[in-house]
From TrEMBL:
Protein name: Nitroreductase
Family matches, as PANTHER family: NAD(P)H NITROREDUCTASE YDGI-RELATED, PROTEIN DRGA
Family per record: Belongs to the nitroreductase family.
Boundaries of every Nitroreductase domain copy: 7-176
SUPFAM superfamilies for the chain: FMN-dependent nitroreductase-like
Amino acid sequence: MEVFQAIKQRRAVKHYHADAEMPAEDFDKIMSAVILSPTSYNIQHWRFVRVTDKEQRNKVKSAAWGQAQVADASELVILCADINAWNDRPERYVINSPQETQDMLLPMMDAFYNGKEQIQRDEAMRSCGIAAQTMMLAAKELGYDTCPMVGFDREELARLIRLPQGYVIAMMIAIGTAEKSAHPRGGQLPLNEVLAENYF
Ligand SMILES: Cc1cc2nc3c(=O)[nH]c(=O)nc-3n(C[C@H](O)[C@H](O)[C@H](O)COP(=O)(O)O)c2cc1C
């Protein structure tokens, strides 16, 4: 599938065949693509929780106010992020770079994030946002539909998945075989309303 076609065909699908299973190689393929997504300084803040256990899925569904796709989709991935990833053995993020690049980037990374909590969190969320789009497009390429979701009780979900201190939940994504198509697009803003040139 062409990238433009996948972008156009990706829709937030809410109804899935509950008995459809995703072959393990498809899930691996999607996730292997996801971790190639770009992140600032290659920090890769994302940490994913794949919810495979049926009972846990049903608990997550309750935390998501009963949204059917949480339990019915073949896969459910909760996109979390380590806010302190910038400071967790950062040499790993540049290990394959030439030594002079490493020597330059590591102090830059520290100066960029140290003591700046808002930026640390913004970056973690940014990384997950980009990973989410990769996940949805990769799934589309393999013939699956997806639904990105933030409609859940954050504290309850954090408790259910035992979210570690210093981590955030960005969203979750249901991936599966559509039972019903998405509604027609809700109403896209025209390009000339959202695209400025040089200045607002
Ligand atoms: C961050 C995010 C959170 C969302 N949360 C939910 C959700 O909890 N439940 C739901 O049914 N759809 C959810 N959606 C889907 C949006 O409603 C949908 O993407 C939007 O209406 C545009 O439709 P489209 O994705 O089909 O183009 C969410 C989308 C995003 C990007």
